[in-house]
What we know:
By secondary structure, this protein is of the alpha/beta class. The chain has helices at residues 2-9, 15-49, 52-101, 104-109, 112-152, 156-175, 177-203, 205-210, 214-267, 272-313, 375-381, 405-410, 426-431, 439-448, 452-457, 475-489, 505-519, 554-558, 564-573; strands at 335-343, 350-359, 364-368, 390-395, 398-399, 412-416, 493-497, 523-527, 539-544, 547-552.
Amino acid sequence: MKNLKQFVQYFKPHLRLFSLDIICALLLAGIDLLFPLFARRFVNDLIPAKNLQLMIVYTCVLVFLFTLRLGFSYIMGFWGHIMGTRMEYDMRKKLFAHIQTLPFRFFDETKTGQIMARLIGDLREIAELSHHGPEDLFISIIMIVGSFVILLRINVLLTCIVFLFVVMLIIFAVWKRRDRTRTFRDVRNKHAQMNAQLEVSISGARLAKSFCNEDYEIDRFDEVNDDYKESWKEAYRMLAIFSSGTAYFADLLNISVTSVGGFFVYKGWITVGDLVAYLLYAAFTMQPIRRLMNFVQEYEVGFAGFNRFVEMMEIKPDIVDKPEARDLMNCKGRIEFKDVTFQYESNGANVLSHFNLQIEPGCNLALVGPSGAGKTTISNLIPRFYDVTKGQICVDDEDVRDITIKSLRSHIGIVQQDVILFWGSIRENILYGRTDATEEEMIQAAKHANIHGFIISLPDGYESLVGERGVKLSGGQKQRVAIARVFLKNPPILILDEATSSLDNETEAEIQKAIELLAENRTTITIAHRLSTIRNADEIIVLTDEGIAEHGSHDELIKKPNGLYSRLYQAQYQGYIPDQIDVATGT
Length: 587
């Protein structure tokens, strides 16, 4: 009931279209109710009296009424669907905006295909329900009640027989409702799982080809595809039971009206015209019954989607602005970790324990150490992609939790190893750094990133498409576009998360120059495995599972012959791998 009230709320912005749809449904049902009465008058009065003039008048009136019915049907078919589509748009817009507020944890644990299924498939079903549901329900009620009142005036006993079958049909529909709900919910879940597997398989198509695992991917997809097929098999079984059952009751109704009505005519209790009206109303009564059956089906499918929509809307972001949060103004770039402890919910182990670190404005700080020591975690905590479990992180001596998220992140630029480029042009991807930038600012950013020359050499220049995730560009070119994006953003704090680790030495050297230019006069945190990229850092922090093992400049740390940094550096660049050091773990 709670979700039904929420569903009704989405009709409010579209009450005019909804009212138009319902009024047309009312008038259409009224015309359908009149036709059997006209037929009864024809058979009982006009044909026996051979009143040709009145027969022509009645015929013209019927033509006029059914022409109106044509108009009402068009309005319901067109504007009713428009209303449903607009409601779908509202829900999708609201859901997408809500997804944008959800934390990294949500995307860590939820498959992209499942999110897409809820944004597209589920909401399409909801749109159909929002249009056809109220319309079918309203017309059915009008037709059933109207038929019942009119037929009672003709013959009470025959009317009770007719509506006995109607009641039996309704009981049958309610009886099968739970099974239908279960099966269609299962269909939607299997559809989401298939979408998720499809998204994974398509995005990993190149990997599958490189490992000759096409058959393996086919088998994996076939598994979820088969589950989806089987879910529909069960759903169609329920639909078959439902439709065949209703058809059986309809046949019994027609047989009963024909036989009992014929007997009543034989006894002289009703006229032939009355029997004709009953037969027509019996046929017409099946229309609203079928509409009700359609409504039940639409309700089960649509509300299964709406419940999933509500479930996602009820996921609360755990990283939000405090009511008293302030915008970060004139950021200097001072960062401090105060006794920070952090753990990911997935494994419960502390990644950082009582961690302390001060980064002065304009400092170029490098983080090195083995995988799992917390380097990337540190870079994710500063912009509040995750919140600390204990302790404080301060920017310009203000706790980041007291700063509005938007203003905090607007002062931070991030360049990662795995560059994310959106499908579109190079221009669009660079302007993503600041969408209101001028053409001159965008070109200047590209020049700083040393990508402008390459771009203008392309036939379409800045309008050249980058392909899915930038596949039309090399690794170095994608990195330069990402750097240009950050140049355009011009943030006082810069985070470089292994930005050059996947590049060849020559490309790395070229991009390193752009990065050094980007880092000028900014507080810069560099996460690196290639130690050659951080030789000019003001301070290097060597992290292990135990926390900070060493800190100092490159020259200071390299002079420590038994130091961890010195041993790592020798292992990488002098081929010297002492027995006591594990290069993979740094211990």
